[in-house]
Amino acid sequence: MLENIWKREIKSKDINSDNTQLDKDIIISNHPVCLSELECGNSVKVIKLQGNRVLINKLKAMGIYAGITIIKKSAILAKGPIIVEKGAMQFALGYDIAKNIIVERL
Amino acid sequence: MKKVVLAGNPNVGKSLIFSRITRIGIVTANYAGTTVEMKSGHVSFKGNEYEIIDGPGIYSLEEFSKTDEIAIKLIDNADIVIDVIDATNLERNLNLTLQLIEKNKPMVVCLNFWEETAHKGITIDVKELEKLLGIPVITTSALRSEGISELLAALTRAETSDLVFDSDDNWNYIGNIVRKVQKLSHRHHTFLESISDLTLHPVWGIIIAFFVLIFTLIIVRFLGESLINYVFGPFYTFLYNPLLQSLVNKIPSPIIRSLLIGNSPDPLQSFGILTSSIYIALVSVFPYFFSFYLVFGFLEDFGYLPRLAVVLDKLFHKLGLHGYSSIPVMLGLGCKVPAFMATRSLTNKREKILTITLIYMSAPCLSQSAMIVSLGMNYGAGTVLAIYIVLIALALGMNWAMNKVYKKEDTSDFFTEFPVCRIPSFKLMANKLWIRIKEYFAEVLPMIGVGVLVMNILDALHVLSFITDVIQKPANILLGLPPEIAPIMLLNFLRKDASVALLVPLKLTAHEFIIACIFLTLSTPCVASFFALFKELGTKTAVKLTVLMFVIALVSSSLIHFIFMLV
Predict the structure, then answer these.
(1) At CA A26, angle to CA A22 and CA A30, rounded to 5?
(2) A95 and A56 belong to one structural domain
(3) Based on the domain organization, do A47 and A87 belong to the same domain?
């Protein structure tokens, strides 16, 4: 599974060439994992947001961007939304969004 | 007069502040996206006249949906902007503040929910924040009406900030501000936070959602029935009706007499303006309306609805939608009009059409449901159940077909912020219920009154008998319903609950009752929801949908009629 994420990561590098600094970070880190795969209760650092640009901007407007620390609180069964906590804020992300958020365990 | 616009993130309390300033009662709730339209009111404070404008909440000045567009336009036209901030979530809120500062408008920052900061272990240095932002900062508690006059007084000091920052690096800059002005102290998990965690738990979340939905139905039914049997029913029978009869009997003209109280002692059959319409509005429908919005208002203010949306997200995915649609669909169990309006916060047209169709078809509105259940129970629970099963099956079939037609073009996926769970304020809940009750009576009573009057006039002019002649043949052949159904089909457009109530004198069989209810539910929307439909979808789509619904109603009820004939 991790290999798959890794490959997808390399592919997406070509598409989003504006984030070269972040890509370097990923190569250094040992265990990048997507938020959907992460076990609940973990505190993690967001390394990269992938996919739909509009959505990434929307998330950024809410304060979800590369570099922040979040906690995965819960995940609704059967690939339902992922519940995440950032400071005083709690929010739900659809499974497909969470798949595109690459995080690193702290 | 200066235009003052309340801007801020969703669910920071803008509408309650608006209501406190202008004393205009509006429906508020504890979740993002309650306000979808602009509201304005006037206030004069120490010789200054202001027009206060409330709009939908936004996270940034980028447009993502129709409501964002409304909010941004309001801000562009403002003379003064009040940036309302949730003091318990300073960091996230300041992003919009910085973007507003870049608009170069005179601004005041309002730190709302100030009363909650203390027990959340948050201390904010207001003076320092004021200095860093270069604009006045006022602390308020809209819930307790604190700080409102200070906020109004600060409007004369509203300033354009001369803050300079790199707008690509907003979050870094905000981080610096927050570090300087905010201190957090450790505190324990509160009871409400534990409940909140439980509602979002993978397993418990689903169990809780199930029980909340079941309890809502039970409470609405039990409370509604009790109010009918012990309060409104006796009030009508023992107080209102005798008083009315003795008053009306003093009127010499028999025509006016029959217009007012009709010809039958049974309020559902008399067709009098002061008997039938009052009975339907007050005794048959209002108790359920009251009970539904009592429970719903509590869930809204507790902050449960977005949590339910998350748990139901998966289910709505199967319908080609997102959990976002669950709140409009739930609102639609009450009344279609606010439900249609709530679809405005959905981001694309496809989801909007699909959700509106689901709201339209899956269940009748509360008042109509009340009539179907109370009359249908005379035939047994199976009859009522059959009606709902057919409606839900049709709604799902329609949803399936529409998903084939409207292909999912963009995958704007689900994400939402959760409001903090709060014990609802009794006063606020009562206030909200009162506003809804007022709207109900202001809209429903005249509507039913006019409906009954129109029926009387049409009857007197023999128009009814003409229409009845035209419709009765097709109605009989296709639906197997008696000719008297014709005028009821017309009334259906005015009040859908009233039309079901008027089935009583027809003495239908169980099969006929099922067909009639399905036809009346689907064939036409009521006047009010018809206009809401136009407003939300535009004329072309609304007309298409209405025609399509009529065809579906006709075809499905005819089909059911034929199935019944074969059995």
Answers:
(1) 155
(2) yes
(3) yes
**In angstroms, rounded to a whole number, what is the distance separating the alpha carbons of residues A92 and A75?**
9
Whether A69 has its CB under 8 Å from any CB of chain B: the answer is no
B53 CA to chain A: closest CA distance, Å?
23
- Same-domain check for residues A48 and A77: yes
Same domain, A19 and A39: no
Taking CB atoms and an 8 Å limit, are B89 and A79 in contact across chains? Answer: no
Nearest CB to A89; choose among B92, B306, B310: B92
Chain B nearest-CA residue for A84: B417
State pTM to two decimals.
0.79
Comparing CB atoms, the residue among A61, A78, A96 nearest residue B411 is A96
Q: What is the tally of structural domains in chain A? A: 2
In this prediction, does ipTM exceed 0.90? Answer: no
The one-letter amino acid at B165: F
How far is B29 from B13, CA to CA, in rounded Å? 9
| Residues from chain A contacting residue B206 (CB–CB below 8 Å) | 76-77
Considering only CB atoms, which chain A residues are within 8 Å of B416? Answer: 91-92
Examine the domain organization and report whether A84 and A51 are in the same domain. yes
Answer yes or no: do A26 and A36 share one domain: no
| A80 contact residues in B (CB cutoff 8 A) | 202, 310-311, 313-314
- Closest partner residue to B417 (CB to CB) among A52, A65, A91 is A91
Q: What is the CATH number of the domain that holds A72?
A: 2.30.30.90
Ranges of residues in chain A whose predicted pLDDT is under 70: 1-30
- Do A51 and A37 fall within a single domain? yes
Cβ proximity of B72 and B63 under 8 Å: yes
Q: How far is B385 from chain A (nearest CA, A)?
A: 30
Q: What residue numbers bound the domain in which A56 lies?
A: 32-105
Residues A67, A51: one domain?
yes
- Measured between alpha carbons, how far is B447 from B453 in angstroms, rounded to an integer? 10
A62 vs B196, B201, B417: nearest CB: B417
Inter-chain residue contact B92 with A96, CB threshold 8 Å: no
Q: Which residue has the tokens 């604009």?
A: B135
Between B57 and B66, residue with greater pLDDT = B57
Residue B473, judged by CB atoms within 10 A of its CB (0-12, 13-18, 19+), counts as exposed
Residues B202, A62: C-beta atoms closer than 8 Å? no
Per-residue pLDDT of B378-437, as tens digits, reads: 888 899 999 999 999 999 999 888 888 887 655 556 778 888 888 888 988 998 899 888
C-alpha closest to that of B511 among B479, B489, B484: B479
Contact at 8 Å (CB) between A95 and A37? no
